[in-house]
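I would like you to help me understand the sequence and structure tokens below and explain how sequence relates to structure.
___
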Amino acid sequence: MHAVIALSALPLFLGALLSDWAYSSSFQVQWINFSSWLIAGALVLAGFALLFALVDVLRRRGNVVYLLLLLATFVLGFINALVHARDAFATMPAGLALSAVVAVLAAAAGGVGLSLLRRRLA
């Protein structure tokens, strides 16, 4: 179940990346607001996935690599949320770079989670 939750955070992180890109090309402040809300929603989903993955690892059924990818996604996503909490002009270029890194980490975590899910079902 947590692999699906982890993969559900990916579109939100990608939306934040696209919002940051739109802000960097137009400088309309509303794009940063969109990005902040998308990151907050993605962190909620990533937090639940992280919690469930931690429980699986503690029960000796989970994968540590998957847990570490989720942890890195959550920590860098939280730092990204703090960067986006600053003034809109001060957010760039660090916000755009962090959004790209977090989106890649979320995609990697989702991919690993789905491959683990396929192995369990097979």
Q: What stands out?
A: The CA atoms of residues 23 and 102 lie 18 Å apart.
